[in-house]
From TrEMBL, chain A:
GO MF entry, a single one: 2 iron, 2 sulfur cluster binding
Domain (Nitrite/sulphite reductase 4Fe-4S): residue spans on this chain: 629-765
Domain FAD/NAD(P)-binding: from-to ranges: 4-278
Recorded superkingdom: Bacteria
Family statement: Belongs to the nitrite and sulfite reductase 4Fe-4S domain family.
Binding positions for siroheme per the UniProt entry: C681
Residue span, BFD-like [2Fe-2S]-binding domain: 419-465, 481-530
Protein name: Nitrite reductase large subunit NirB
Pathway: Nitrogen metabolism; nitrate reduction (assimilation)
Automatic annotation (TrEMBL), chain B:
Protein name, UniProt field: Nitrite reductase small subunit NirD
Lineage start: Bacteria, Pseudomonadati, Pseudomonadota, Alphaproteobacteria, Rhodobacterales
Source species: Alloyangia sp. H15
SUPFAM superfamilies reported in the protein's UniProt record: ISP domain (SSF50022)
InterPro entries: Rieske-like_NirD, Rieske_2Fe-2S, Rieske_2Fe-2S_sf
Domain Rieske residue range list: 3-99
Swiss-Prot/TrEMBL keywords: 2Fe-2S, Iron, Iron-sulfur, Metal-binding, Nitrate assimilation, Oxidoreductase
Length: 811, 110
């Protein structure tokens, strides 16, 4: 007969514990699970991505009702436990009592609410569960929120709400943000980056009282100095405290948390506890990694196996998009402690290492956190770093010898090094999964959950794959372009510039191509790079272009083509429409209005292309480049010209941009949108460059997408005049042309180089001007109508068969 | 053999192709190097993509619709794909391209 196990609390710790327990011994216990929240387990750490709109609630559920049902766990969700009688071994819930043989308390923690006057008003919430997250999400654009608390949780809440368009003030009592994890300088960089996202940060700010609107709802927060910060929602994110009431009432030993020993057993041998409600060796727990360790130990204890929970050194990563932050160990100043600091303000990189003697005891990284895990390992292992002190701050790549290989750094990590903070997965688990057959990232994710949540550790997981599998695994980051070369796109771009390679032959010879003249994968890329870097020296090679760009029309599944004349900013005239209609009739084309404000003529035979182009040219139209890795459309609304809400002439700006940019070649297609007001009728916020006109000028956003991925633009800059808007747009596109990998849309490229770098580069007026000039130089060569050129008889001949032997046969 | 003059090599772009209509259907004439031509069926066995519109590299062509690659010497599909395109005898004589009329279903030369 199975023993009766009762678990109180369905949080992350208890969920993981049940997984271990049931995996190891499915029938050992008859399990009942109580949870006050009306649902099973979800990944609380992922509430921030839910708030920011990066994930949905469904995606963060770790154990749903079906999971429990399949494992025979009786769930009593939405039912509070009233008391525990340890003498009689009975748990009493709202729906009745139940005996147990073993009890696990996993009641977690409660958010701390500062008892400020007004803290009980409506609209004052903590940031703890899904209901709180939903309240924050529901607030939305145009409303205001104040967050008390500039720690990890508060800042994730702030960034999430700001991303949804809420105006956010963060009030922090200390001199800089995240003072428990960061030093002042890194705190400053973080503050600057948040300010750039439009979040107002108030440090050294004492909250005095919360003001009411007179109807029981929050109206504003008042600070000590009298400042009032108006708000529709006030979020307190000032910390948590262990929920110990149940344990205390049951007579268990409780200090700050319910006291447990190394086996996770409380002062009662049949009662165990884990998670944020416990205290172990004087410490309480807020991060997830130790909770997962506890879960494992507790499950083993329940199965009668010997296991010991050991506290480990912890590292913190901030999950706020665009803020790369890492902190580990102790970084307070003190006797006998020395700092090594590295600063690169232009790139927004800051690194600080704290040494005591020859040991690294703390590290703070901002802007470039790639070496975080390595530093963390040195801290945990108390490695003697005396030998590498001079180059320590540059990370493992500079420690000479085999460490120049990025793989060596990860290979040197101990098995218990935490790789995935979201899911508490350490290196050893990943290695075990790989040795058991997980041969790629997807398989590792499926088996260990590593890198399956926020994804910031994906690079590390790939390196572990590489280190474990050796030659069998190719690191995706250094993937060669194709089988003709070992070079990556990035290396090829760099070498074409530095070695001044100006022809395809030069690339093949100098860079050791293994094929005679490339292949269908590398040739279009090489052609583009040469074209983009040497517009005056290199001659475009149509034979290295995909059929659409070579024939200046889109090939369709039956081998016919579609023809799409340009419509500047979506404007046309009755004359143009009549010419299009006539062309459609003459060449038997199907007429389709596209998603990009143009008219598509489908089903045209290749031989007819030069003739239909000539007809459309005669009516004043040019190629719409609907086929090109280049500028496609500039979508517009009617703007101030016609719309009662339009703030600027969005149509005019769209036309001006299209006239400047058309005919250009870029790494991938580029689509623009200009909306006349924030109602955004031109859907500018999911374009490669999207401009939203407002009363004060133009908000330029970049790196949006509405294809395989859907992504909102990120703000590049706000400018006052149309001229500036055009300059910034042109400079951005030129920067993209000069740096991106072929076939990366701007959003992918920006994700690689970082929006901050793009912003900083373009913010330099001289650099911006130089980019614009280089773009215009390119356009002086390449901005011409390809239709007109190919409609001439000499070129048109190429669109016809070389010979027709069927005619001769008929003679 | 029955050689038919179908044009000059310079009528075909280097690393490009042109079509010839024949009684057996469209035949693509590929030019892979300064003076090297091949003749093969224009239709990819996968979804009938027009191979004359593909990128020509080395002695191979890539179908423009779904990237199947064929060796022009043998007509065999490369890599994991399985299939074959018909190839036809073709030769150069003083810059003129001569295609075998018998092979493409044409009885006699002019």
């Amino acid at each position: 007969m199975a023993q009766k196990l009762i678990v109180i609390g369905a949080g992350m710790a208890s969920g993981r514990m049940l997984e271990h327990l049931i995996d190891a011994a499915p029938d050992a216990y008859d399990i009942t699970l109580f949870n006050a929240e009306p649902r099973g387990n979800y990944n609380r750490l992922m509430l921030s991505p839910v708030l920011a709109g990066e994930k949905t609630y469904a995606e963060i559920v770790t154990h749903d009702d079906a999971w429990y049902a399949a494992r025979g766990v009786t769930c009593r969700f939405g039912e509070k436990v009233l008391r525990v009688d340890t003498a009689a071994r009975i748990v009493t819930g709202e729906q009745g009592a139940l005996p147990y043989d073993k009890l696990v308390i996993a009641t977690g923690s409660s958010p701390f609410i500062i008892p400020l006057p007004g803290h009980d008003l409506q609209g004052v919430i903590p940031y703890r569960d899904l209901e709180d997250t939903e309240a924050m999400m529901a607030l939305g654009a145009g409303k205001r929120a104040v967050i008390i608390g500039g720690g990890l949780l508060g800042l994730e809440a702030a960034a999430g709400m700001a991303a949804r368009g809420t105006e956010v003030d963060v009030v922090h009592i200390m001199g800089h943000l995240m003072e428990r994890q960061l030093d002042e300088a890194a705190g400053y960089l973080l503050r600057r980056s948040l300010t750039q996202k439009g979040i107002r940060v108030h440090c050294k700010a004492n909250s005095k009282q919360i003001l009411s609107d007179g109807k029981g709802h929050v109206r504003a927060l008042q600070l000590d100095d009298g400042t009032e910060l108006p708000c529709d929602l006030l979020v307190m994110a000032v910390g948590i405290r262990p929920s110990t009431a149940l344990g205390k009432a049951a007579g268990l030993e409780v200090n700050r948390g319910i006291v447990v020993n190394d086996q996770m057993v409380t002062s009662d041998p049949d009662v165990l506890a884990l998670g944020e409600c416990v205290e172990h060796a004087g410490a309480i727990f807020g991060l997830v990694a130790p909770l997962y360790d506890q879960a494992k130990v507790l499950a083993q204890t329940l199965l009668g196996q010997k296991a010991t929970f050991v506290q480990k050194e912890l590292a913190t990563k901030l999950k706020v998009t665009g803020c790369d932050l890492f902190s580990a160990g102790d970084f307070a100043e003190g006797e006998g402690r020395e700092d090594i600091v590295f600063r690169d303000p232009a790139r927004g990189v800051y690194k600080r290492l704290i040494l005591e003697g020859n040991r690294l005891i703390g590290a703070v990284l901002y802007g470039d956190t790639g070496d975080g895990a390595w530093f963390h390992g040195l801290i945990k292992d108390a490695t003697d770093v005396g030998e590498m002190r001079e180059t320590l701050i540059f990370g493992p790549a500079y420690q000479g010898g085999p460490a120049a290989d990025p793989m060596a750094a990860v290979a040197a990590l101990p098995r218990d090094a935490e790789i995935c903070g979201c899911n508490g997965v350490c290196k050893g688990q990943i290695e075990d999964a790989i040795n058991a057959g997980a041969g790629d990232l997807g398989a590792v994710r499926a088996r260990t959950k590593a890198s399956a949540s926020c994804g910031t550790c994906t690079g590390l997981v790939e390196q572990i794959l590489g280190a474990t599998l050796g030659d069998a695994f190719v690191l995706p980051t250094a993937q060669p372009i194709c089988g003709c070369t070992d070079l990556s796109h990035e290396d090829l771009r760099r070498l074409i510039k530095s070695q001044e390679l100006k022809s395809q032959e030069a690339v093949w010879q100098e860079l050791g191509w293994t094929s005679r003249n490339g292949c269908h994968v590398c040739r279009p890329a090489v052609n583009f790079y040469l074209l983009a870097d040497w517009p005056l020296d290199y001659v475009d090679d149509p034979q290295s272009r995909f059929v659409n760009e070579r024939n200046h029309a889109n090939i369709q599944k039956d081998g016919t083509y579609s023809v799409m004349p340009r419509m500047w900013g979506g404007m046309t005239t009755p004359q143009e429409l009549m010419a299009i209609a006539r062309a459609a009739e003459t060449y038997g084309a199907t007429v389709k209005v596209t998603g990009g404000q143009r008219i598509d003529l489908l089903g045209v035979r290749k031989e007819d292309l030069p003739a239909i182009w000539a007809d459309l040219n005669a009516a004043g139209m040019v190629s719409g480049h609907a086929y090109s890795k280049g500028l496609r459309t500039v979508k517009t609304c009617v703007g101030s010209e016609w719309c009662r809400f339009g703030t600027q002439d969005s149509t005019g700006l769209g036309i001006a941009l299209e006239r400047r940019l058309w005919g250009s070649w870029t790494p991938h297609k580029v689509k623009l949108g200009v909306s006349g007001c924030p109602r955004n009728c031109a859907e500018a916020t999911c374009k490669d460059v999207g401009i939203v006109c407002v009363d004060s000028g133009f908000q330029i956003g970049v790196a949006g997408a509405a294809g395989m991925d859907v992504k909102e633009t990120e703000r590049l800059v706000d400018v006052r005049t149309e001229e500036e808007a055009i300059d910034w747009t042109v400079a951005f596109i030129q920067l993209y042309r000069e740096h991106a990998k072929y076939l990366d849309r701007p959003y992918k490229w920006v994700a690689k180089v970082g929006l901050d770098w793009v912003k900083e580069t373009l913010a330099d007026a001289a650099e911006r001007q130089a980019l614009v000039e280089r773009f215009d130089l390119f356009q002086s060569v390449y901005q011409k109508d390809p239709w007109a050129e190919r409609a001439k008889p000499e070129a048109a001949r190429r669109f016809h068969p070389l010979a027709d032997l069927t005619l001769e046969a008929a003679e | 053999m029955s050689w038919i003059d179908i044009g000059h090599i310079d009528d075909i772009p280097l690393r490009g192709a042109r079509l010839v209509k024949t009684p057996v259907g469209c035949v693509a004439i590929f030019r892979t190097a300064e003076a090297e031509v091949f003749a093969a069926s224009n239709a990819c066995p996968h979804k009938a993509g027009p191979l004359s519109e593909g990128i020509v590299h080395g002695g191979k062509v890539t179908c423009p619709l779904h990237n199947w690659v064929f060796d022009l010497n043998t007509g065999e599909a490369q890599g994991a794909d399985e299939g074959r395109i018909a190839t036809y005898p073709v030769r150069l004589d003083a810059g003129r391209i001569l295609l075998d009329g018998h092979a493409v279903g044409k009885r006699s030369a002019a």
